[in-house]
Amino acid sequence: TGGAGYIGSHIALAFRDAGTPVVVLDDLSTGYREYVPEGVPFVEGSVADPAAVAHAMDEHGVAGVVHLAGLKYAGVSVEQPLAFYRQNVTGMQVLLEAVAERGIERFLLSSSSSWYGTPDSELVDEDAVPRPESPYGQTKVVSEWLLRDVARVHPRLRQTSLRYFNVCGSGPPA
User: Fold this and answer.
1) Is 85 noted as a catalytic residue in this protein?
2) What's this model's pTM, rounded to 2 decimal places?
3) Which of 25, 74, 117, 122 has the most CB atoms around it within 10 Å of its CB?
């Protein structure tokens, strides 16, 4: 999900180049169709739309999920908290329901360092207590909790969350 964004398009390209089948689901609210690598199937739709999620999964035989779709920008989330909760939390719920219904066993969540808020120390690790300072950060904490709770009742679901700090780089050579 979110494969028409910066990180997602790089992941889709890496999968394609490794010979791993991949499909992109993206609503293009912040991504770009032209970022989807050539030869990668594209489904335009939101993770908050159960029909779009089901279509992408069923049409393309999805066996694992890399979830990058969602609204970002902590400052904007303060002004638009409902939009962030709808996209990030409801979208996560819809996606996890589809994963559970289909017995999908692999899930990677793109989370955020916003989980940590402003740390008390210079070094933080995965065991740090969540202290988000914005609705955006809160949606990432809730999403991780949803994933953990679903994995608890579906023990075959292998899952992890990546809490990025700053992502930067460039695209592949033209």
Assistant:
1) no
2) 0.92
3) 25
